[in-house]
Amino acid sequence: MLGTQRKERIDGLAESGGDTTAGVSLAASAWRRLRRSPTFLVGAGIICAFVLLALVSPLLAQHDPALRLLEEQVSRADNEIPAPQPGFPLGGDQYGRPLLSRVLLGSQQTLLVALLATVIGLGGGLTLGILAGAFGGWVDTLVMRVVDVMLSVPSLLLAVSIGALFQQQSQFTVIIAVATVQIPIFGRLLRGTMLAQRASDHVLAARALGVRQRSIVFRHMLPNALGPVIVQATLMLAVAIIDAAALSFLGLGAADTSTPEWGQMLGSAQNFFDTHPHLAFWPAGCIIVVALGFTLVGESMRDALDPKKRR
Amino acid sequence: MLRYTVRRLGQLLIVTVVLSVLLFGWLRALPGGPVSALLGERATEESRARLVQQLGLDQPLYVQYWKFVQRAITGDFGVSTGVQPGTPAMEVFLQRMPATLELSVLALLLAVAVGIPLGYFAARRQGGWLDNLSITWSLIGVAVPVFFLAFLLKYVFAIEFGVLPASGRQAAGIDATHATGFFVLDGVLTTEWDAAWNALIHLLLPAIALSTIPFAVIFRLTRASVLDVVEEDYVRTARSKGLGAMVVRGRHILRNAMLPVVTTIGLQTGALLSGAVLTEQVFNIPGIGQALSLGFQRQDYAVLQVVILATAMVYVLVNLLVDLAYAAIDPRLRTR
Amino acid sequence: MGAAAGPGFRLSRVGRRLVTVGLTAVLATSLSACVQSQRGEDNGQTMVFGAPGAPALFDPFYASDGETFRVTRQMMEGLVGFESGGVEVEPELATDWNSSDDGTKWTFQLREGVKFHDGTDFNAEAVCANFERWYNQTGTGQSSALSYYWIETFGGFAGDDEPSLFSSCEAPDPTTAVINLTRATSKFPAALGLDSFSMQSPTAMKKYEADKVEAKGSGFEYSEYARKHPTGTGPFEFDSYDQNNQSVELRRNDDYWGDKAKLDRLIFKVISDESVRKQELLSGGIDGYDFPNPADLDSLRQQDFNVQVREPFNVLYLGMSQKKNPALRKLKVRKALAYAVNRENLVNANLPDGAKVANLFYPSSVDGYADDVAKYSYDPEKAKRLLNEAGHSDLTIEFWWPTQVTRPYMPDPRGIFNSLAGDMRKAGINVKPVSKPWNGGYISDVNKGDAEVFLLGWTGDYNSPDNFIGTFFGSTENQFYTKPAPWGEKLANRLDAADKEPDPTKRERMYTEINRDLKSKYLPAVPLSHSPPAIVTAPHVKGLVTSPLTAEEFASVSIEK
């Protein structure tokens, strides 16, 4: 779980984005430094490869990942799982489904889970953050109490609590559970940046000129808060993938496993760890590399945005 | 300062009440309920209905909640139905808390013992091989799912090489007095050294698995804050005064760089608890993390209520203490 | 920055102290390595067994879960018991018994010279005290979550509306106990071998208020007796339950009336995760464990562990509810489903070593078993034909399966579901999967009859057809919802009549006939398989005899290293 340091880190990030005096030049200088950062380049490379894989995997996968093509070679009694063979370079999984095709196509669902969870989390956080940051006063207090309550429950626990609420577990419930954890984090982040903006000169100036409240929020405050949000969202993509895997491990993953997803593959391989570790290694390896990719990009962007580092 | 403290305590109270209401409603919204767990496949519709009535689960939610509050005030939080059936939920929590604390404290100690020196040396040789290596390590540590790492550690050290125990808190055959519930401490206090040692080696693998994320955080923060401090004027002044390298490092750089690190350590509680749910599952440690996952599986209302409320309270309290410490140092914060 | 240096200075002093403490700890731990060998050697024979769950309490009367019985079984005995390694009834605390011709009066000759662990005598009065205690439960004690087996076997309690099978208990002399029943039943005397009906010391129960059980919040708080002072007559007696370490310790009863236990100490360690149990065995932390993952059996055998596969005493079936989907009320449709599923393949690919295809709703070791029943061997073409004839060539069904659970009869619900759903699709049936968590709605919805087609099973308690098919079809508002079926009521009545028949030969014939009709005329569900749970022990553990009822007794076990 990356949701460490929670408030501290969130607020720190919020302040870094609040530095609007630099305006456009901030983004430009950040980008200049990013382009030369090896961390960023490696991470970006991984992400590009991952997205590309997700796009072209239907062409690469030779078999339907849901079909139990090698079922005759599966035996619970003898603990047999189909070995690599012609046409099936990685063999089959514990139900005789083609493992290579599942690993390849798993990228699609994994990307989908990460993206949707983060987008929903961001959407929820955005709503809360705008409410609190734009209006201040009792709205702010109320929203922040809600956020505090959500943050007061350890993140995995919150995800599990939400996931357990659904009668039928599916990829969708996993996404909702993971997204819920992100809402208070984004909410606090956005509120922080908005507050910093509210006191800033250009917003004061706009207000003095009689610009309407809504227009101030959406034209002036929100765009300037984007930097930290993008950084946080990138980091959250990694967290989402890892959290989805943890939910599967705890038995709260999607019940229908015909569409493969790495986290769910890893979670369901736990009983075969001793005897058929490759079932866990493939999805785990993919998760680690992709999560690393998002973390690298997120962290290097955070560094690039940090005004202190610009000396 | 007093007014600030009172206000923050009031907020804590509100958070607790809100959380308890949410928690109560949420638990009752879960499909199934404790009745299924109590009766299993042997349940009939009739016996289920009778039991629901007997346990008072058919009453309106607010009545149930009010009864819960009334009993909770007297210290009665209900009885476990799934985790340790028949044991009062508070007792379950108190019995299991030491296991989790022991594990978390050791994990944190490991993270601090490795993270701070590594962060310091990495910063002193910024861009050097040690710096790059430890940055990479900390980044990978964050990207590896905790439970997968735990499996790997167990597989290698307990199964393949057999040098460390695979699970549990203490070997079952050992004669040990358990006075405090902290097994290592118990062994030391009663001078049953073998029991203490046994408990300690049981803790090692899970603590390593659990320490990866706090390590990454502490390492990065130490590194960053040492980098900051090195450029501060007073360090330059100290250097220019001709103070010895050792004195500058020890008294000026490290000491000041430690301040943010120490506060961060306090904020690791939540992360440790999240990790403990997974680690305790893999290593079969009867702590509160395991109580939570079992509680979910078996829909143990009483235990989930107590454990979640109590952990949230601990978490909020720790945060409050950190904030109070800050406020004491920086008066500006009190007005926020 | 002077302010910042202040706390920094204090910190380093604390740091110095920490170093001192750390050094002491290192010294202490290195010392302990030497001390370790001196303690814990003359403890005699100790066996540590890995149990999958924690016992709820130690009073078997209030329990219905295997993990509680696993422990109490070592400490307590009933009037009758089950043969070692089988399911037939044999003498335990009663040496002999007979019943009147109408099956309502049962006379038990009791073993002499038996004492409870607290030193009091076991005699006819103690037997009656136990029966009276069970029959006179009040309030919370009558809950089906507590007195489950009493309600299942005997029905109601004293002063209840519900009729009770139990009438009275007499003790004409110390070694003769007479139990009067209100009617004949097929359950007697086998049901008295159930762990719940173990004989417990009346003195101890009184002293520690065994009947004091209270509903608190959503759970039950048990008596001091049930938590700390269980007192029976068995080869082991209670020592302690360390909840911190999740282990239960028993010690040998040196005054046992029969062959004394070979082990000095027997420890049950709770390890809920099956892969963790295996790893503990591999690393030597435990000497054996129950319910290994079927996938692990092979590798365990290769490493010389003793894997014993029990004789199966359970059944997994494909239930079909006639409540919601009218198509399932047609016999042809239900038959089509029976032909559509490939049970041979299911057993081969998804079930553990020793599993068998099920012909009936109970295994062949139970009375009334018949081999000459309709078999429904795999035939997808025939399934399609039957569906056509029934006018449901495009049949759509909801197929329910549970998540977050494994049962001895159902080691991998997802795998079993996948396999069967695949078969059904091959027969042209549209399958809509519905999955719910076992405790989170699955059990409750299936019991309401809401699941159209579902996976469920049963583990037998004792050798009686009534315990299997009587439970399944004895009422019409059950999982299968046989109420709308023209034969639903009739089947329930036939089962009731068979249970009440005092003549064993006649009774057995009645059950055989019911079994035949269940497979041909009724088919409310399709029996799929019997899968045996295995038990694993380290090579140095000798003398463990497995039981189909998973009722292993550890008195015969010894450790030979």
From TrEMBL, chain A:
<protein>
    <submittedName>
        <fullName>Peptide/nickel transport system permease protein</fullName>
    </submittedName>
</protein>
<feature type="domain" description="ABC transmembrane type-1">
    <location>
        <begin position="107"/>
        <end position="298"/>
    </location>
</feature>
<feature type="transmembrane region" description="Helical">
    <location>
        <begin position="146"/>
        <end position="166"/>
    </location>
</feature>
<feature type="transmembrane region" description="Helical">
    <location>
        <begin position="40"/>
        <end position="61"/>
    </location>
</feature>
<keyword id="KW-1133">Transmembrane helix</keyword>
<dbReference type="InterPro" id="IPR035906">
    <property type="entry name" value="MetI-like_sf"/>
</dbReference>
<dbReference type="InterPro" id="IPR000515">
    <property type="entry name" value="MetI-like"/>
</dbReference>
<dbReference type="Pfam" id="PF12911">
    <property type="entry name" value="OppC_N"/>
</dbReference>
<feature type="transmembrane region" description="Helical">
    <location>
        <begin position="229"/>
        <end position="255"/>
    </location>
</feature>
<feature type="transmembrane region" description="Helical">
    <location>
        <begin position="111"/>
        <end position="139"/>
    </location>
</feature>
<dbReference type="Pfam" id="PF00528">
    <property type="entry name" value="BPD_transp_1"/>
</dbReference>
<dbReference type="InterPro" id="IPR050366">
    <property type="entry name" value="BP-dependent_transpt_permease"/>
</dbReference>
<keyword id="KW-0813">Transport</keyword>
<keyword id="KW-1003">Cell membrane</keyword>
<feature type="transmembrane region" description="Helical">
    <location>
        <begin position="172"/>
        <end position="190"/>
    </location>
</feature>
TrEMBL record, chain B:
<dbReference type="InterPro" id="IPR000515">
    <property type="entry name" value="MetI-like"/>
</dbReference>
<dbReference type="InterPro" id="IPR035906">
    <property type="entry name" value="MetI-like_sf"/>
</dbReference>
<keyword id="KW-0813">Transport</keyword>
<feature type="transmembrane region" description="Helical">
    <location>
        <begin position="199"/>
        <end position="219"/>
    </location>
</feature>
<dbReference type="Pfam" id="PF19300">
    <property type="entry name" value="BPD_transp_1_N"/>
</dbReference>
<protein>
    <submittedName>
        <fullName>Peptide/nickel transport system permease protein</fullName>
    </submittedName>
</protein>
<feature type="transmembrane region" description="Helical">
    <location>
        <begin position="257"/>
        <end position="278"/>
    </location>
</feature>
<feature type="domain" description="ABC transmembrane type-1">
    <location>
        <begin position="97"/>
        <end position="326"/>
    </location>
</feature>
<feature type="transmembrane region" description="Helical">
    <location>
        <begin position="135"/>
        <end position="157"/>
    </location>
</feature>
<dbReference type="InterPro" id="IPR045621">
    <property type="entry name" value="BPD_transp_1_N"/>
</dbReference>
<keyword id="KW-0812">Transmembrane</keyword>
<keyword id="KW-1003">Cell membrane</keyword>
<feature type="transmembrane region" description="Helical">
    <location>
        <begin position="12"/>
        <end position="29"/>
    </location>
</feature>
<keyword id="KW-0472">Membrane</keyword>
<dbReference type="GO" id="GO:0005886">
    <property type="term" value="C:plasma membrane"/>
</dbReference>
UniProtKB/TrEMBL annotation, chain C:
<dbReference type="GO" id="GO:0043190">
    <property type="term" value="C:ATP-binding cassette (ABC) transporter complex"/>
</dbReference>
<feature type="domain" description="Solute-binding protein family 5">
    <location>
        <begin position="88"/>
        <end position="479"/>
    </location>
</feature>
<dbReference type="Pfam" id="PF00496">
    <property type="entry name" value="SBP_bac_5"/>
</dbReference>
<dbReference type="InterPro" id="IPR039424">
    <property type="entry name" value="SBP_5"/>
</dbReference>
<dbReference type="InterPro" id="IPR030678">
    <property type="entry name" value="Peptide/Ni-bd"/>
</dbReference>
<keyword id="KW-0813">Transport</keyword>
<comment type="similarity">
    <text>Belongs to the bacterial solute-binding protein 5 family.</text>
</comment>
<dbReference type="GO" id="GO:0042597">
    <property type="term" value="C:periplasmic space"/>
</dbReference>
<dbReference type="GO" id="GO:1904680">
    <property type="term" value="F:peptide transmembrane transporter activity"/>
</dbReference>
<protein>
    <submittedName>
        <fullName>Peptide/nickel transport system substrate-binding protein</fullName>
    </submittedName>
</protein>
<dbReference type="InterPro" id="IPR000914">
    <property type="entry name" value="SBP_5_dom"/>
</dbReference>
<keyword id="KW-0732">Signal</keyword>
<dbReference type="GO" id="GO:0015833">
    <property type="term" value="P:peptide transport"/>
</dbReference>
